[in-house]
Structures are given as structure tokens and as C-alpha cells.
């Protein structure tokens, strides 16, 4: 990229940390990926991060938030893990473009990663919860209030565990990293982080391996139901569970094969996201630079 | 409508019958709704029906088919209950515009019925099976191969009954008219049509009433999961089950309240389709006249 193509600032507000970087027009990081714990004054922290990055560029910024952006008002409508952001708009955040975090991750993979050039894509991002996003005929699914693409709240078992959303048996209750750690704790009595369960699985712990396989199977059931609804060319799986893809792939693939309608399955690619933990930052920048349509 | 606004021919190919009528620009039938049993030579029958209606107008025609239209080729890609149609395109059917039947019913309700003017709509049409369609930001969801909107194949119970699609536990296995009759037969040992079960329910048969309530509950679970994905302004319920709405409404509404995320539920309307069994005919004509976007 030449000096005449200013980089875009991408900021990704997570549940516990904030990531940020300068991103060029090709979706590549121009400089290091900052990853710092969230401060008590989140809004002040975001302004500081932006100002520090702005010094080197003076350009457009995008912020991915763990919440919804109401398309009518442009304001943050809900953000369960970041309530300080609710009601804020671009004007309150130094004219930064706002985007939902899972949608940002999908936009990144769609513009610059595993789903580049694909017109119909489902993104499933499984970590603490299960976030999602959908590209329908080349545009991001937004919905009436910016809550479209909440794929983690597909109901898979109406008698299942209570979900943070108020429902029962949502996909994220079965297929998130949190669900994997919970399943393992219930079976073994050992409280472990998802990363620790993954290490145990790779070291030969059968219960740990099964915890990932069970979650992978449920993620595949959800993906299949979503494929039957959207008929996409591709499903992209990202987030922490994708980093343990070796532990979920077989069960995921089996469930997708069983539950996707044959005509939809035949043309369907499953890909792991290529942009890893930088996806939200790259997508926030891409949304600020390009918007959410072609 | 004036004589200078020629009516459009709408034809709706069902599993056992073919419906047809002339439809004006406002979506009103101009003349009677023909409803005849399907003939052995379906293609010949469609040409005859069109020619008979064409004599009075000489205008555009649309055909709703129980199958998918591949957007790349414009040809019918699958039609389990009408295999004679597979591979046909508009040129093979006297230049008639082709549309999936459930999508046609939704387009009719969206242009001329319960969902007129609404930008994000989910249509669930429960009869022999459960058909569906989705309007996303003012356009019909089509998908990569024209199979988008197969809402009846949302997976609700991966261990549930085998579905005609090859999967298990799809929505239509729990919420179709067929499922209602099956549930009643299993509980009572009496083989009845769905219409007979409805009459029994209204006459005080508790098992019959419960058959509708169970199906209504499942339809509500499916509708809630779909609402969480699409964040629509409205869900329109049509088809035979909608004609027994008094028997399903309470259970449907309860399930939607429990399983829809609160922020999505607050702005959500549920409506029964207004166009009844003419919806497919009106939608086929609307698609031929207007296409599937605004």
C-alpha cells in the first residue's frame, strides 16, 4: 500500500479485552495488533486507543461492539457485556463507524479471508458465546433493529438449558467454548478453561475429546439448519472453537452431512476462518471503509 | 383496474391440484379461482390452463411450482412432488415466470396482503409440509441455488423423526398438518385427516385439540428461532394450519414469547395470511409482474 492510501483504524471491543490495529485496504494489519484489558471507563479507553492510532494516519475508524446497532438510529441498541455503550452513536465515539462484533468478523472473512468473493455466506463464531452473521446475496443481513444474524440463539432444544437471552436450548448453550468447559466439568468434576480442556483432549483425555465432539456435533446441527434456511455457498467457522478445529471437525462434518438437505449440501463449502483473533479488528475497519454491501 | 391494465395469469402447482386465475395489478382476482386435480401430463395441463386464461388477456404469466428455481440457470432444480418439471425453464412453459410455491405465497402476502409494506418478513406456510420464505430488507431470500427459505427444514430435534429431506427432526415433522394427523392417530388409534381432527377439536375432542396445540407450540419454537436469526418486523403464518388458527394461536404465541430474544420480540408482529388458498396464484402473478424485489 502506498502512503497515499491511509490505513483505517479497526477496534474490536470484546467481553474482557479491546483489540485494535491499523488496517490497510487489503485487510492486512499495518503495525501490531494491540490487545489490552478493558478499562472501567470503556468510552474513554476507546477514545484514547483511537487517538493513539490516529496520530499516525488521521483516517477513518471502525469499532466492533458486542451488541446491536439499530439501523434506524445508528445507535447501539443492546450490549449485554458492555452496557456503557448502549445508546451511543457514531457522534459519541469520534465519528467511528459502528458494527456488531460477530458481523465484523464475518465481514473480514468475506472481504479479505476464507469467504472472499462468495455471495451467500454463514459465519459461526464460537467462543464465550456463539456469534453469527450472514451475507445474503452480497449484503450483510441486518434485520429490522440490527439484531439479524443472532445465530447463537437458534433454538435447538426448547427443553434445554436456560440461555442468557431468556430462552432455552439456544445453539450457544451447546456449542460455545463455555458449553465445552461446562460439559467437561459436569462429567469429570474438574473445572477447566476451554483451552485447558483442548490441551487435555490432545494429551489423550477421552472426556475432554468428547466434550469437543459433542459441541462440534451441535454446532453442525445448527449449521445444517441454517444452511437449509439460507442455501449458502459457504459456512465459515471462527472464534476460539475454530482454533481447536481438529477436535470438532469430524463431529461437525458428520452432523452437517446428516442434517443438511442433499441439494443444499452438494454445493456447500465449510471453511475455518483465516483471520483468527484479528478478524473483528479487520472487519471493523472494512465496514468503516466499504460499508456492509459491495 | 382499467382495460389498459391487462391482468396477469397466476398458476399454482400443488401436490395434488393446480390452481389458476387472472390477477390484477392490485393482487385481486379478476375472475374465478380455478382449482382442478393435477393431470398425468402436468406440462400439457399447465399449457392448456395458460392458453385458456390467455384468451382473455394475452399477458404475462407466472407459475408457482413445488420446487426450487436455480437462479443461475432459471430452471427448476428440484421438485419432489412434481418430478416432470425438473430441468424446465421459462422457455419450456410458454415464457411463464417461475417461482417456488411458498415463496410465491409470501410474495403475495408481502405485496398485497398481511405484510404489505413491511421490509423484513418471515412466512411460514404449514399444510402437507411446512413451506417458507423470507423477505430480507425488501428482497426475497433466494440463496445460492434457489433453495433459500426452506424453513420447514430447520432442525428442531436431531434425534427426531426422519424427514423426507433426508434429515431428522425438521420443523415440518412437528408442525405440519401431516404431523397433526399423525400425532392424533398415534394417541387415539384413529386415522383422520387434518380437517377432521380440526372439526373434532372444535367439537370438544381433547386429544384433537392437543394435536393442534402441540404442533402450534413447535411452529412457535421454529418461528422464534427464525426471528432470532432474521430480526423481522413480522411473521406471517399461512397454509392449512392457519385456517385452524384458533386451535394453534395460544400455543404458538406462548412458544414465541418464551423463545424469542426480548429485544426482537418487542417489535415483532405475528399475522395470519389474508389471501388463503389464493396466495400462491396471486404471488405467482406478482412475481411475474414485479419480480421479487421492490
UniProtKB/TrEMBL annotation, chains A, B:
Entries under Pfam families matching the protein: ROK (PF00480)
Family (UniProt): Belongs to the ROK (NagC/XylR) family.
Name listed for the protein in its UniProt record: ROK family protein
Organism: Kribbella albertanoniae
Amino acid at each position: 500500500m502506498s502512503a497515499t492510501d491511509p490505513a483505517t483504524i479497526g477496534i474490536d471491543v470484546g467481553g474482557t479485552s479491546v483489540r485494535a490495529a491499523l488496517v490497510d485496504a487489503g485487510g492486512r494489519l499495518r503495525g501490531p495488533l494491540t490487545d489490552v484489558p478493558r478499562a472501567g471507563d470503556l468510552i474513554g479507553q476507546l477514545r484514547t486507543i483511537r487517538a493513539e492510532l490516529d496520530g499516525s494516519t488521521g483516517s477513518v475508524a471502525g469499532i466492533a461492539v458486542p451488541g446491536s446497532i439499530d439501523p434506524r438510529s445508528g445507535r447501539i441498541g443492546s450490549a449485554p457485556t458492555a452496557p456503557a455503550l448502549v445508546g451511543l452513536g457514531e457522534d459519541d465515539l469520534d465519528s467511528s463507524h459502528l458494527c456488531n462484533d460477530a458481523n465484523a468478523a464475518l465481514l473480514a472473512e468475506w472481504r479479505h479471508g476464507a469467504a472472499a468473493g462468495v455471495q451467500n455466506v454463514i459465519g459461526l463464531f464460537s467462543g464465550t458465546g456463539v456469534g453469527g452473521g450472514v451475507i445474503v446475496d452480497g449484503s450483510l443481513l441486518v434485520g429490522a433493529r440490527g439484531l439479524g444474524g443472532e445465530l447463537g440463539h437458534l433454538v435447538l432444544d426448547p427443553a434445554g438449558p436456560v440461555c442468557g437471552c431468556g430462552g432455552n436450548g439456544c445453539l450457544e448453550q451447546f456449542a460455545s467454548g463455555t458449553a465445552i468447559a461446562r460439559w467437561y466439568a459436569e462429567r469429570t468434576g474438574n473445572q477447566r478453561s476451554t483451552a485447558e480442556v483442548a490441551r487435555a483432549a490432545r494429551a489423550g483425555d477421552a472426556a475432554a475429546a468428547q466434550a469437543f465432539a459433542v459441541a462440534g456435533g451441535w454446532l453442525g446441527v445448527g449449521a445444517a439448519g441454517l444452511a437449509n434456511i439460507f442455501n449458502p455457498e459457504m459456512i465459515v467457522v471462527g472464534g476460539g472453537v475454530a482454533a481447536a478445529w481438529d477436535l470438532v471437525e469430524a463431529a461437525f462434518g458428520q452432523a452437517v452431512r446428516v442434517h443438511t438437505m442433499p441439494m443444499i449440501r452438494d454445493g456447500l463449502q465449510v471453511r475455518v476462518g483465516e483471520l483468527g483473533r484479528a478478524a473483528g479488528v479487520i472487519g471493523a475497519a472494512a465496514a468503516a471503509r466499504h460499508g456492509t454491501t459491495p
